């Protein structure tokens, strides 16, 4: 299995509850290595750009408000089959549907305030990493 990269966000509900370390530990325990990380407060423009694929969805406005409601930690994760590995440890979007032992089952507050984002394909991972990181900020 090839070593690949994915993009992760520790969302405002998790940073607010001081869960950055706890979430990162679950990612690391799942076999992912943090090769870039920074804490930022997303602007409305950044959140709208990042979630542009969802702009027709009814929850888009609320999602942008939530993602700009506090700091987030954006990360690049590296590991074997990183996109799938990360989505497996994240769990289902709605914590009510997430499997035991996943980040969302453990920490998420709701379908929206669900603690983490993870890219859904290698192609989107590359786009999302590029959206937030310069090449020299990533140290593999
Ligand atoms: P993500 O993109 O954050 O990794 O999560 P995902 O693939 O599991 O979920 P997606 O369908 O891409 O939705 C993106 C984010 O929008 C919020 N959401 N709210 N109110 C709602 O019904 C609703 N549905 C989704 C969540 O924060 C979700 O992670
Ligand atoms: Mg998604």
Number of domains in the coordinates?
1
In N-to-C order, the SSE pattern is EHHEHHEHHEH
Strand order of the largest sheet: 2-3-1-4
Average pLDDT taken over every residue: 98
Number of helices: 7
Q: What portion of residues belong to β-strands?
A: 15-25%
Q: What is the CATH topology descriptor?
A: Alpha-Beta Plaits
How many angstroms does the end-to-end distance come to? Answer: 17 Å
The CATH superfamily turns out to be Nucleoside diphosphate kinase-like domain
Number of strands: 4
Largest sheet: 4 strands, antiparallel
In this entry the ligands are: ribavirin triphosphate, magnesium ion
Account of the 3D structure:
The chain has one domain: Nucleoside diphosphate kinase-like domain (Alpha-Beta Plaits), CATH 3.30.70. The chain is built from seven helices and four strands, in the order βααβααβααβα. It is α+β, with helices and mostly antiparallel strands and 140 residues long. The mean pLDDT is 98. It has a four-stranded antiparallel beta sheet with strand order 2-3-1-4, with helices on both faces. The chain is globular. Bound molecules: ribavirin triphosphate and magnesium ion. Ribavirin triphosphate binds next to strand 4.
Could you write a compact summary of the structure shown?
This protein has helices at residues 12-16, 20-29, 44-50, 60-67, 82-90, 103-107, 122-132; strands spanning 3-10, 33-40, 72-80, 116-118. With 140 residues, the protein is α+β, with helices and mostly antiparallel strands.
Which key phrases capture this entry?
140 residues, single chain, 39% helix, four-stranded antiparallel beta sheet, 7 helices, Alpha-Beta Plaits, alpha+beta, binds ribavirin triphosphate, binds magnesium ion
């Amino acid at each position: 299995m090839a070593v690949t990269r994915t993009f992760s966000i520790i969302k405002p509900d998790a940073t607010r509850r001081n869960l950055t370390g706890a979430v990162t530990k679950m990612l690391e325990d799942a076999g992912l290595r943090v090769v870039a990380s920074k804490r930022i407060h997303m602007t409305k423009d950044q959140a709208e750009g990042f979630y542009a694929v969802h702009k027709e969805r009814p929850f888009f406005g609320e999602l942008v408000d939530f993602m700009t409601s506090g700091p987030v930690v954006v990360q690049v994760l590296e590991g074997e089959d990183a996109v799938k590995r990360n989505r497996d440890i994240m769990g289902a979007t709605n914590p009510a549907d997430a499997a035991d032992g996943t980040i969302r089952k453990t920490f998420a507050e709701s379908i929206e305030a669900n603690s983490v984002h993870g890219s859904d394909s290698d192609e989107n991972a590359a786009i999302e990493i590029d959206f937030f990181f310069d090449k020299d900020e990533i140290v593999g």
